[in-house]
Amino acid sequence: MYQNRITLTPQDILNKEFKIDTRGFRLKEVDQFLDVIIGDYEEFYKILKENEKEKEELLEEIMNLKQEIRNLKTNIEIAKSGSSERREVTNLDIMKRLSQLEKIVYGKEEEQQ
Question: What is the pTM (predicted TM-score) of this model?
Fold first, then answer.
């Protein structure tokens, strides 16, 4: 994934050998190698920042989706309870209407007798 962005592997750094001059390692060679290491560290830092930003965005999306799920579950429960309440109200209305009809029918029958 990041192979084209990172130059050195840990093994490359471990196995690096510098040529020795009369006063020690060749400074130019060491400086060039350190420049490559610094470049890789900067790239790692950028990658870490990008991953952290992506992680935060994904966590925010997860929180939004969880909230949406909770809202939908609540709406489903409301719809379920609302429909059963409507049935009860409808049944209650039917019972009232039947009662009124009985009063009318039986009331008229009593008047006729």
Answer: 0.51
